Amino acid sequence: MTIREEVPVQSRNLVEMSWDPITRIVGNLGIYTKIDFDNNEVVECKSTSSIFRGYSVFMKGKDPRDAHFITSRICGICGDNHATCSVYAQNMAYGIAMPPLAEWIYNLGEAAEYMFDHCIFQDNLVFVDFCEQLVGETNPRLLERAKDTPAPNADVHGYKTIADIMRAFNPFTGEKYKESLAMSRLTREMFCLMEGRHVHPSTLYPGGTGTVPTPQVFTDYMVRLMRFLDFVKTIVPMNDDLFDFFYEALPGYEEVGRRRVLLGCWGSFQDPDVCDYRYQTMDEWGKAMFVTPGVVVDGELVTTNLVDINLGIRILLGSSYYEDWENEEMFVTHDPLGNPVDRRHPWNQTTIPKPQKRDLEGKYSWVMSPRWFDRRTGDHLALDTGGGALARLWATALAGLVDIGYVKATGSSVEINLPKTAAMPETSFEWKIPEWSNAIERNRARIYFIAYSAAAAFHFLEKAMELVRAGETKTFQEFEVPDEAIGCGFHEAVRGVLSHHLVIRDGKIANYHPYPPTPWNGSPTDSLGTPGPYEDAVMGSPIFEENGPDDFKGIDIMRAVRSFDPCLPCGVHMYLGNGKVLEQRHSPTLGLGVEH
Amino acid sequence: MSSIRDNLRVGKPDVKPDAPSHVPGISQGNAPGGIENDPGFYTTGERGAGRPSAKSTARRSTGINPGARNPIDPSSPNLSPA
Hints:
heterodimer, A: alpha+beta, about 35% helix, about 15% strand, disordered N terminus, B: mainly beta, two-stranded antiparallel ribbon, two-stranded antiparallel sheet
């Protein structure tokens, strides 16, 4: 633990630094910080988003059967998670459950998506921050030490020193970097076998799937999975070696990106033996999911009940470019169980955009501030997803409900058992609940969740093949669109919690609100003054980089933010506050209103 | 024609609400009864949590002498090709 003395902000010599945009897709995430280089600490942080999407606005009035096709386009990397979640919400609204084989096909597709996306993000993007080249630029002394530090699991993965592991992840030249790219192709093929097309599935619709369940589809999937397992069995110990080295070589590194344990997981992989998609039984089938939903506060599992999770969601404003919907229509006053639904719940949200100039002391983001209302304390908790994997493993481990042989939750850990493959023997991994929710543990959990998904996929394959061998090849259930209905879907996008809330009136969408992980993680400070998780994790984070302000790369801040998996960081631009700024413009509406 | 709204100059709206995706009179893929009318499928009740289940015969794949395309051994699963 690092001990840092509190120095009053006024007496500090603060340097403003910003990275905008950080993220990929539309490059919409900006991180604005004030850094105290004398004390190696980030003092202030604001997370902003300068793009407005408006799905909740233009979904109104559309045919609900189109919802999964449209909402899939929210994301260019996890669109299938949206499609799947939308199908779950529609199934509830239409009062149907798809045939079991269709459910296993969904599970297999989603498992492949976790394998693909976590793999490409971890090995090809996160590890750029940990590779030999970058560590040499930011922490040359650390690299020297890595060259002399033997890797504890060298006999498994073949890299003798920690520096060898770092070298294997050098972009474009590193051995593992290149192998990971090949693996992401393989896992993407697995995905396409099940869901037709990546990343906007062509074979998913409410009621089932258009995937034709021939034995060959499943064996094609399995062949690829077995090949991928050889890779998984080496990559997990490589990650452990590298991350343990950081803790050991840089005492206090656990403080980078650390925040209070406030994790949310909405559960993944439905069990068709229990799930009937009815709201009334949602608690029961939520607990049967193969990744257990849950809210973890300070290491304690507060609930695994999806109904509680649903009713606790609150969408706050405060620093966002929207007008409040306090006087707008309430769409759902009570849920189907008779519980009152809050005005700030997504079912009752009305999005009223109000574009304006960015003001870091006032309104500065298009992202709203989703919070989870803790009934025990009355707090609106700024839950994060730990980049998805950390919350999933943490909630599943604590709940201790999953036990399918390949994966077993013990109450304090998750055991993952992988069968023998061509190049490697039978292997077991155990992910143990860590001491901290920090950058390193978010990254470590990601690699373990790849192994988790691969192991769970074997269970899904066995179940699917059992049905195919019995000739039960039905994969679609018909339905009628009701005039009035409500539905909600809970799923895990790769980088965390995902919910879709749907209200149907006159057979059309009256209200639709998708809440993906990034609004939770990247939310700005809310109306109650609670900062969003990125802000919270970066504020107070120590700086270990050896470079001074002149050639500062901000590697520790980048590691903290990227550990949340804010989609794929593509372009990083930065300027020093005391540098030369020729002209700075901010236009929230892509040029509208800018005087020329 | 542009107007000023909240200090921003905005253009004239030129979008129309979407047309409904369904045209009355045209059958809908999700409409009940569709699968029953598909030759070669027969329902086998429910499985798991009230989930529908059905099997198929070779008639699902071909209309030409489908009886001869079914498995010889009645205990074999009938895996009709796509």
